[in-house]
Structures are given as C-alpha cells and as structure tokens.
Write a structure and sequence with these properties.
The complex is a heterodimer of chains A (726) and B (149). Chain A has 726 residues and is α+β, with helices and mostly antiparallel strands. Chain A is 26% helix and 23% strand. Chain A has a 7-stranded mixed β-sheet with strand order 10-11-8-18-15-16-17. A 5-stranded mixed β-sheet of chain A has the order 13-21-20-19-14. In chain A, strands 22, 23, 24, 27 and 28 form a 5-stranded mixed β-sheet that branches. The longest helix of chain A is centred in the N-terminal third of the chain and has 23 residues. In chain B, 34% of the residues lie in helices and 14% in strands. In chain B, strands 2-1-5-3-4 form a 5-stranded mixed β-sheet, sandwiched between helices. The chains are: A alpha+beta (726), B alpha+beta (149). Chains A and B meet through helix 5 and helix 16 of A and helix 1, helix 2, helix 3, helix 4 and helix 5 of B.
C-alpha cells in the first residue's frame, strides 16, 4: 500500500509525551547517558524493538497496527523468540510516526495491509530481538568478567554455564543499553524455535471483554469538542451553500464549519448534539458532472473493454488466438464483480488538536506513517511540529491504510478551532457513502479444447478499475496496474497454479469516478471467482471431474496442488457426500501463501443455500501462531461470503445508494458454516495470513451451487439472483 | 435531565430525553464500552441489559430507560470476577478487533440467563449481532463452553 515518507525538518526536536491511556505512545526523552535511549518511564532501550524494565518486564515495540488480525502477538512472538525472554512478562507498545521520522525509520514500514505484517518484517524484528539478547548476555559477561561465549540466556535469565551464576535481564539492562550493538547477529534455525509456531494466547484479549479497550471512537481528551460531518454524496462534488444560522442556536452547538470545498461539519459539546444539528442543517450541493453516472453506465463502459483491442498483458505464453481459432470446442463466459464497501464495525474517525506550533492527531490507522503524511499536508506544518498517536482499530480491512480522508477532515476542522481537541466521528451512513470501494470488474473467459478434450488455450480478459492508477499512479508499470492480476501472474507472490499451452491474461483498464480501494484480499477476490469457477465450467464441458481436471494442469505447481489435495482428502472428494449435500473446490496463491477450499452445501427450493462445512487449507511457509491462523481463515470466510451473497454498492445519480446494513448486509452466526482449517506450513518462505484465504470461499461455494443445481452464477452478489444464505 | 441506574449506580444525567440511551451512556455517563455501529438497531454493537434483557441502546430514547436497571459491559463482571461469558471468551480467544464484542457478550449473557443450555438453534435465533472480523465460530464454541461452566 501507499508509503509516503514525510520530509524531515532537520532541526532537532523533543518528542512530547502525549500518551493517552497506557501504551499508546512511548514518548521518548532525550538520551541521558552516552547512547542510552529511554522509554517514558525511564527504562532503557536495548534496541529499537526492546525495552527492559528493572522488574524484568519486556516491552516490545510493534510498528504495524493491530486490527484484529493478531499481528501484534505474532510480531511479539518473533522478537521474543530471538530475545529468549520470559513470554509471560511481555508487553507491547506502538512507536509513533513522529519518532520514526526522527529516528530514520528505525522500525521500518508502519503499513499494515497486503498481509505483510509478518512476511515483510520477519527478518528485522527477529534481528532486533537477537541483537538485544546478545547485548544483554555481553553485559552480564562483562560484570562477571567472563567470556560471553560461556553464558546463555533463556526465559529472561542469563546463566554463566561454568560457574552456574545467574542474573536477569532487568538487572543488566542498564549496562546492556550502553554497549555498542553487534554489527551482525545470527538468527535461530527454524528447528530450534520455541515460540514461533506455537499457538500462544493473544496479548490483547482481556480489555476487549470488559469495555476497557479504547478505540478511536472512545477517545476522551480534556476540553474536547465533537464533530459530525457530511461530505458531498457525489464523489467530486462540492458544497454550494449551507445555512449555519438555522442550527447555530441548537443545544450544544459551537461551530458550523466548511471542511475543504466538499464537506460541512457541526462542532458541538457532544457528538449526538453535533449529529442532530447536522441533520437539521440545510446544505445545497454542487454535484458536478459525475451526477450523471449510474451503475448501468459503468457496466456499459466495462462491457466495452471485454473486447477492446488495447489491453495490458500480464501473463502470456503460446498463441491463444490461434488455439481458440483452431479449437475443436470452445467455451465462453462473462463474469462480473461489484463495488463493495469495507464497512468495519467502527466507522471512520479521527481526533485532532491544532495550534500554529503543533498539530496532533489520534487515529485508528493501518498506517501511522500515511496518517502522519496526511496530518502534515492538512496542517501545513513541518514534521517536527506534528505527531500522530495510533489508537486501536475497530476493524480495518484496507479502508484505514492508504486513505486518511478522515484525518484530513479532522485537521481541517481543528485548524478552525485552534487549541481545542476535536473528535470527528462519521455516521454509518457517511461511512457507506464515502468508502474506497472494492474495484468493479468484469471478465470474459474463453477456453479452447482439442478433439481429445484437452485444454489447449485460455484467454482471460479483465475489464475494470485500477486501484493503483488512482491511489499510487507512480507504481503503474508503463500504465499497467500489476495488482489487477493477483493470483494470475506467471510467478511471484500471486502466481497462477495452472499451466496451459496457450495462455493470455490481460486487462482493459476502465476507471470510474467512484474511488477504488484495497479491500481485504483486493483483486484476488474476483480473480479467484473468475478463474476457479470458469475452470469448473471447463471441467464440466470436458466431462471431467473438477479435481482431476485441475490436477492435470497443476503438474508444475506442487505447492498449489498440495493444498488442493489436502482439502479434497479431508472433505472426502470422490466419496459420496451426505444426502442432498454437494461439493465445490477452489485454490489460489495469494500474498505468498497457498490456499484451497472445499465447500459442502445444500440448496432448498433452488435458492436457499446452506453451507454445512468448508474445509480450508493454507500453506504459509512458516506458521507463527497456528491458532490465530485458524481464526483468520474462518473470519475471512465471513467477510468473503458476506460479499458473495449480500454485498453490492450500486451507483445512482453519481452517489452510492446503500446507506446502512439493511441495504448492505453482513453474515450472522446462523449462516456461519463449520470451518475446518488445515494449517500446513511447508517451510522455507513467509506467506501472508489475514487476506489469502478469503478468495477461495466464494468460488468453492459457487462451484458447489452448480453441482447442486446445474446453474452457473456469474455475477455477484447472489441476492441479485434471489439466492439467499440460510 | 434523566435519572438513570447504571451498573448499580443511580445518577442524574443532563441530557435531552430524546437522546438515544447509547449516547447518554457514552457521552454523559462516560462509559464507552458500549459501541456505536449503525445507529438503527441492526448490528447489535450497542447492546446493553435493561432489567436483564438485551436491548439495542442506539434507538432507545434515554427517557424510556428511566427507573430501570441498566447494565453495560463495564458492569457485567461482579466483585472483580469476570462473568462466565467473559471467562469463556478469554479461554476461547473470541475477539479479533473486539469492537463488536461488548454487544455480542451482552447479548449472549442475556441468552444464557433465559436459556442456560442453549441449542445451536437457540443461538442462531437470538444472537444476531454483526461481526465483520467473523468471529462466529469461536462465539458459538464459547457460548457452549459458558453454558457448561
């Protein structure tokens, strides 16, 4: 996702201590000793990742954001593995983006998306732990005047083997912090891991059970006011006028303010008062030319792209046109996938306090650095006058990573009431109307068979939105958006699992005024439906079993095949299913992990679908916390199946029509299938977890639906076909 | 002004009587464990107990809760001991982001009060809260575990 490294103001500065609650900010002080950096409570930092308190508490810094996916616990496990500390005394803490700027990104990338929390930082966080361990052992050895090589550490205790002398991390931390870190440290062999690979309990559960956990929505600051906002419902539109006088006398109302050129906010003593006044505020919009756009006009534009001459090619071998022209049998289908909203349970929000000398923002964000960049831009202040404090997220799913429109709004409001902290909360309706939507896409697929029913050619033409062209145009490759092809590439983290003699996968980019965003799984969600359902169509056309048909194309893709075989074996593919139960398969490679699913469903009255069980296999290479992986698999299916059955954002007169969960529904517990997760790490690589599995649930269910009914459903969501999940 | 009894404490709250109970609890009383998710009683994040029954507080005027016994997530544990639902939630590691869990736990606690040993069908009928992280598999396991406790 987007990374903007803010320009550093070279003047030195002291980072303030604006912690709210505990652990939200560590508030570094100016170093007291020669090179010792201290946490706010004065405890010494051994490395950027590790602070040790005198009572042996170990504070591990986490740069990525915890939003439910468990990365906080997983990353702490990785540091602790190398540190050899007492796991029961581990605490965690978020460094702030301002501190990151000051310390030249000592904690690396803050971005928490693309299932990259662990797979992109495993090396340096483990080195941070190993370096600290080395320094702690050296400090003990120095005190004992013995060679460090005679000492070892386990469970935060250092032992001098020949003499049996022992000390603890807390006792030598001060001395260790003064040592020069070793230039290079060796990491453990995976076979020696004690914490990585173990299903230790999450570190962050208790406060979520008692109401104690503070989310962005819950923040309280002294003297704080509350803001409600309405942005122009049509993307690209503006505020024409608003009649502040009509609401200025309402209870609690302090200010009625323009926010940029497209939004209006009411600031009041309480948020409910602000929202009540905003609802009563007459606002006239200049909706602009986009007010003519509808779902139908967008669909027409995408449809044209399905046969357009120009397209960006991502995967090509052989001569697909010749193969199709010379085919003994040809199969063709068109699929479509809609706009979808992230709809995290906690709507967007941010709190800002601005003075001409300092701007501070408290925000639930997947990327503290991007939130910081938005703060700088909106405040107009340099990096040394800004700070961002990350707060717990009530869900992210991609909405809170690359986009910080709510931060921009909060700062623009705060600038108009200097010195006063203002908490901006969106309503659910505002959240529905101002998302960064899952990109809309259509796909035309053509398969060619020879006379022996062998697949000789496959052309997959995508037509639709590019996220990068809007969000990060500098990442386009000669105009091509590589993200569009997730799961369809010749190799890499998103490699296709099939070999076809003549293959062409290309993309006709067709962008709309509806802003696209990274939505959990991103483009692989629709690509998995297109590819895996069409492969089922091809198998059926060839009169072959869907599993056997796939296997014949997967000889060069053993890891893809292994997860597919695992779900087929566990589900009992090829053996009779219970009466009335039908099975469907899917597999993909996603975010460097291999995933597969076998769904078992029954269908009543032709349209009431009950999903009895989904067997899901995932090979993440190394599996840091298998219990949390299982939870991510099951949880991702709720997100993916809600999307399949229920979720579509339609466009009318330029705006999104759905306003709340009655029009944009989400699965409930009654609809939840039994999910049997097979975590099968094969070693040697680091695959992602939070997103990969989501993509296989929908095609597995659609393929099972065909097995049950003989009907192919090629457009999402299924509610548009009168099909419900029961 | 409204007189509310929340978690065993009675307080006079300066608030418009039409204000939803949710916002009086969050903003006037200052208990933020009860969450806003949709504002129209669809998602259940705002679930509290009123005289022991699960109620979605985002659409209930504060005036309608006067004279009744209101319990929020902060008042579910008693005497420093977690409620059996909270204990089961801890043991089964139910929460992911956790935002919906206060409402989920309150709904489940009310269910177990009415049906100490709920069947899966009872759970399906009574627990209709939305969880976008998708914790339902653990929710169901933990409900059965709490019922056994």
């Amino acid at each position: 996702m987007i990374i903007r490294t803010p320009k550093m103001n070279r003047r030195s500065f002291v980072i303030g201590s604006a912690a709210v609650g505990t652990g939200l900010a560590l508030g570094l002080k100016v170093p007291l000793g020669a090179t010792v950096v201290r946490a706010q409570d004065g405890s010494p930092e051994i490395t950027a990742w590790v602070v040790i308190r005198p009572d042996d508490t170990v504070v591990i810094r986490i740069a990525r954001s915890e939003m439910g996916q468990g990365t906080l616990t997983g990353l702490a496990q990785m540091v602790a593995e190398e540190l050899e500390c007492n796991w029961s005394k581990v605490r965690t803490e978020y460094p702030t983006p301002g501190q990151s700027v000051k310390r030249k990104r000592a904690w690396g990338d803050f971005s928490t998306g693309g299932s990259r929390g662990i797979r992109d930082s495993h090396q340096y966080v483990r080195e941070g732990g190993a370096t600290a361990r080395t320094m702690l052992i050296q400090a003990a050895a120095d005190a004992w005047k013995v060679p460090a090589g005679e000492c070892s550490a386990a469970n935060s205790v250092i032992t001098h083997q020949p003499s049996g002398r022992r000390t603890t991390y807390g006792k030598v931390a001060e001395a260790a912090a003064k040592l020069t870190p070793p230039a290079k440290v060796a990491l453990k062999d995976p076979k020696d891991w004690k914490l990585i690979g173990k299903s230790v309990k999450r570190l962050d559960t208790m406060d979520k059970l008692t109401g104690a956990q503070v989310y962005g929505f819950d923040l309280k600051l002294p003297g704080m006011l509350n803001a409600a906002i309405k942005d122009c419902p049509v993307f690209g539109g503006k505020v024409k006028s608003f009649e502040a006088a009509k609401v200025q006398g309402m209870p609690g109302v302090r200010h009625v303010l323009p926010v940029g050129d497209s939004a209006v906010a009411v600031v009041a003593d309480t948020w409910w008062e602000a929202k009540t006044a905003l609802d009563a505020l007459p606002i006239a919009w200049d909706e602009g030319p986009n007010a003519k756009v509808s779902s139908a006009t967008i669909a027409d534009m995408l449809k044209e792209g399905l046969d357009a001459d120009q397209a960006f090619v991502a995967n090509q071998n052989g001569d697909v046109k010749a193969a199709i022209a010379g085919a003994a049998k040809k199969v063709e289908a068109v699929y479509a996938y809609p706009f979808q909203n992230h709809a995290p349970m906690e709507p967007m929000n941010a709190t800002a306090r601005y003075t001409p000398d300092r701007c501070e923002v408290w925000v639930p964000t997947q990327n503290g650095e991007a939130a910081f960049a938005a703060t700088l831009a909106a405040s107009g202040l340099p990096a040394d006058k800004c700070e961002v404090y990350k707060i717990n997220l009530g869900g992210g799913f991609g909405r809170r990573g690359a986009f910080h429109d709510y931060v921009t709004q909060a700062v623009l409001i705060a600038k108009q009431v200097p010195g006063v902290p203002v908490k901006l909360l969106w309503t659910r309706e505002e959240d529905m109307l101002h998302g960064r939507y899952h990109p809309v896409m259509q796909c035309k697929l053509v398969g060619a068979f020879d006379a022996g029913n062998n697949l000789t050619g496959l052309h997959m033409r995508l037509s639709g939105q590019s996220i990068l062209s809007v969000v990060r145009p500098e990442a386009l490759q000669q105009g091509k958006d590589p993200l569009v092809f997730q799961g369809l590439n010749p190799g890499g983290d998103f490699g296709i699992g099939y070999s076809v003699p003549n293959l062409l996968i290309d993309h006709a980019m067709r962008n709309t005024h509806v802003p696209p965003g990274f939505w959990r799984g991103v483009n692989i969600n629709q690509n998995a439906i297109f590819l895996e359902c069409f492969l089922d169509e091809l198998a059926h056309a060839a009169g072959q079993d869907p599993l056997e048909f796939r296997r014949k194309l997967m000889g060069k893709h053993p890891k893809h095949l292994a997860v597919l075989n695992a779900v087929a074996d566990r589900a009992g593919w090829g053996k009779p299913a219970p009466q009335g139960v039908y099975r469907g398969l899917a597999q993909m490679m996603s975010f460097a992990s291999y995933v597969a699913a076998c769904a078992e469903i029954s269908v009543k009255d032709g349209n009431k679908v009950k999903i009895h069980r989904i067997v899901a296999a995932t090979d993440t290479g190394y599996a840091v916390n298998p219990a949390q992986i299982e939870r991510q698999v099951a949880g991702s299916f709720v997100y993916g199946l809600s999307a399949l059955f229920m979720e579509e954002c339609t466009v009318k007169d330029g705006h999104i029509e759905q306003t709340n969960f009655h029009e944009y529904d989400s699965m409930r517990i009654a609809q939840m299938p039994k999910v049997e997760a097979i975590v099968m790490p094969s070693g040697g690589f680091w695959g992602g977890v939070g997103e990969p599995t989501i993509c296989v649930a929908a095609p597995a269910v659609l393929n099972a639906f065909f097995a049950a009914t003989g009907k192919r459903i090629r457009t999402v969501p299924l509610k548009n076909h009168g099909i419900t999940l029961v | 002004m409204a007189r509310l009894t929340i978690n065993g404490r009675t307080l006079d709250v300066k608030v418009n009587p039409n204000t939803p109970l949710l916002w009086a609890i969050r903003e006037q009383v200052g208990l933020t464990g009860t969450k806003y998710g949709c504002g129209v009683a669809l998602c259940g994040a705002c679930t509290v107990h009123i005289d022991g029954a699960a109620v979605r507080s985002c659409t209930l005027p504060v005036a309608a809760a006067e004279g009744k016994k209101i319990t929020t997530i902060e008042g579910l544990a008693s005497g420093g001991a977690l409620h059996k639902v909270q204990k089961a939630w801890l043991e089964h590691e139910v929460p992911q982001c956790g935002y919906c869990q206060a409402g989920m736990i309150m709904a489940v606690a009310a269910l177990l009060r009415d049906k100490p040993k709920p069947s899966d069908a009872d759970i399906d009928a009574r627990i209709t809260n939305i969880c976008r992280c998708g914790t339902f598999q653990q929710v169901r396991e933990a409900i059965h575990a709490a019922a056994r406790a």
